[in-house]
Amino acid sequence: MPPSPRSVLQAIAQRVMIARGLAPEFTSAALAELNAIHGPATATDSVTRDLRQLLWCSIDNDDSRDLDQLSVAEALPNGATKLLVAIADVSAVVKQGSALDAHARQNTTSVYTAARIFPMLPEKLSTDLTSLGFDADRLAIVIEMVFAADGSLASSDIYQATVRNRAKLAYNSVAAWLDGRAPMPPPIGAVAGLADNIQLQHRVADQLAALRHLHGALSLETIEAHPVFDGAVLTGLVADTPNAAKQLIEDLMVAANGVTARYLAAKKFPSIRRVVRTPLHWDRIVELAAEHKSALPKDPDAIALEKFLLVAKAADPAGFPELSLSVIKLLGAGEYVLELPGSAVAGHFGLAVKDYSHSTAPNRRFPDVITQRLLGAAMAGLPPPYSNDELAALASHCTEQEDAAKKVERQVGKSAAAMLLSTSIGKQFDAIVTGASGKGTWVRISQPPVEGKLDNGHAELRVGDRLRVQLVRTDVERGFIDFVIGD
Known about the structure:
By secondary structure, the protein is an alpha+beta fold. It folds into two domains: 5-277 and 335-414, no CATH class; 422-487, CATH 2.40.50.140. It has helices at 5-19, 28-35, 99-107, 123-129, 171-178, 186-189, 194-214, 244-266, 282-291, 302-315, 320-331, 366-380, 388-421; strands at 49-50, 58-60, 69-75, 81-88, 111-112, 117-118, 137-147, 153-164, 168-170, 224-230, 233-240, 271-275, 335-339, 428-437, 440-446, 449-454, 466-475, 480-485. The protein has a five-stranded mixed β-sheet. A hairpin with a 4-residue loop joins strand 17 and strand 18 (480-485). Helix 1 packs antiparallel against helix 13 (388-421), helix 2 (28-35) crosses helix 3 (99-107) and helix 7 (194-214) packs across helix 8. The two termini are 40 Å apart. The mean pLDDT is 90.
């Protein structure tokens, strides 16, 4: 009997992980440390607050078990709102210099491939002992923010607390309820007051997003696809689309990451920032806008770009994800950089924020663990646990490994897509150019949402161009999907 599609993809994922310098398996030393951990971290001092009574909830993917954050809101006088974000205290369990830490430091991120997840931390931790799971008491770093009635940040603080998740919620069902398309998810109704609390969080998040967009945060919307299996059989690719619940969490996390960065700066601590620099290919973004009958200034301007995106989305909602994808490709990738006390690094062009430090997903991102350790030292009045040279090297390493992880995910995803398209050789599709360089030209079709290479190169094509392509070849093992220009 031939191997199943799932097992084929798992073998490809394992091979590609190794080829990209990522460790697919934990070392025996890491597993020995894991076996010696018998429970979650608990408070060991009187400073840690007990906030288990609050209406904490998690909102994540339907199948997520590595829950990094909870949130809760409280209405204050004069239209103000206190918003708390609790982040799983991974640093209390995974010690710096340990074998578990070494594995996380090598990979720097969990890798989510089509057929297998390679977690940064063992599942005993990431989905249990360091996860903010339903009805479980867990140690957390709490980011407290008070927003005035106009959505501006009035005050903030960071401290350690014990929390308890009162409702494990999923993006799609919460979004359908918030949009009025479906009834309230039962876990919300089971907790008195939770519905009003989530609605309050939603209102504050909308305010925060509106303020960021006024300052040039970009309204980008892409369609990502993930494979769907029936047992071991690959049955299709399903698109993940944005929704109100995902936006709610994103807006709260952007705010929390900003508070974290500014807290470390106020304590005269170094930090690792996430930046997206001023785009190098602004000239092509200007050309794309002109093709949509809009004018952008010659020099990069996030506010002007956001206005163009809003007009384009209103004019063509169905085609907007393709335009967004082109803009994202032209903006360039994000990177991690060291910020020293008193210095200034580039901000995040796409989010229109200056202070941005990844801190809200320590179960799946190593930069967040580093930030958590820096916060712990700052809160305790201790010196930073890393030297500046070490932080600079880690920032560069995290950027490189995150890029490697994305390439693994894309390659295995293309292998899955190649499986599905293997019976469609000769078929023609509408496509958009997503990459154009000396290495070749790449295009993306929308049904199914798959990217492949355009054979024979076409130097005249640029990112954002639309064309008709014909599928001529697939290679599952190498994740190749090849097109030629169609009729």
